[in-house]
Amino acid sequence: MMESGFRWLRQHRAVNLALVVGYSLFLLFAHDLFVSISVTVMNAVSIPVYQRLVGSVLIVSVLAFVVLIAKSVRRYVSDKRAAGYFTAGLLLLVVHFFVLTEMNVEFIHALMYGGLAMLIFPLIGRSGGSVILCLPIML
User: Fold this and answer.
1) Is the pTM of this model over 0.85?
2) Which residue in 27, 76, 77 sits closest to 19, CA to CA?
3) Left (φ > 0), alpha (ψ -120 to 50) or beta: where does 97 sit?
4) Per-residue pLDDT of the chain (139 residues; tens, 9 = 90+)
5) How far is it, in rounded angstroms, from Cα 90 to Cα 111?
6) Nearest alpha-carbon partner for 41 in 92, 107, 103
7) Would the CA dihedral through 36, 50, 48, 93 be positive or negative?
8) Do 117 and 14 meet the contact criterion of CB atoms below 8 Å apart?
9) Distance, first Cα to last Cα, the chain
10) What HEC string does the chain produce?
């Protein structure tokens, strides 16, 4: 499914570029709106309940993403180093989540910019370059 989506985006570069620009603008300008919604929800319930709720949603989302990526890596990548890089990156993301974040909701930034990198990937065809091109938006 992901491979066919990337293929379609590679064939329709103008649409892909429009999606990248639109999503980047969304990330930049809708951030404050979603922060205020998040704070409102957090104040409506207690912080521990909010932390568990967001943590549960994130765990389910990350597990679904890992299964999807693992299927793609196993099916399309014959190089075992790619699986190692994926595992190391995932491990660093988990360490980041448990060590460096104050609130579980902060992990959403990793998912948001991971999504942006996935939109940029069909334009340039390199995963490292996709992450590098996300840096200005992330900063």
Assistant:
1) no
2) 27
3) alpha
4) 667 788 888 899 999 999 999 999 998 898 888 888 888 988 999 888 888 888 788 778 778 877 777 776 666 555 666 666 767 777 777 777 777 777 767 777 777 888 888 888 888 888 778 888 888 887 7
5) 12
6) 103
7) negative
8) no
9) 31
10) CHHHHHHHHHHCHHHHHHHHHHHHHHHHHCHHHHHHHHHHHHHHCCHHHHHHHHHHHHHHHHHHHHHHHHHHHHHHCCCHHHHHHHHHHHHHHHHHHHHHCCCHHHHHHHHHHHHHHHHHHHHHCCHHHHHHHHHHHHC
Identity at 52, one-letter amino acid code = R
Locate tokens 């959403």: which residue? Answer: 108
Residue tagged 């200005």 (tokens)? 136
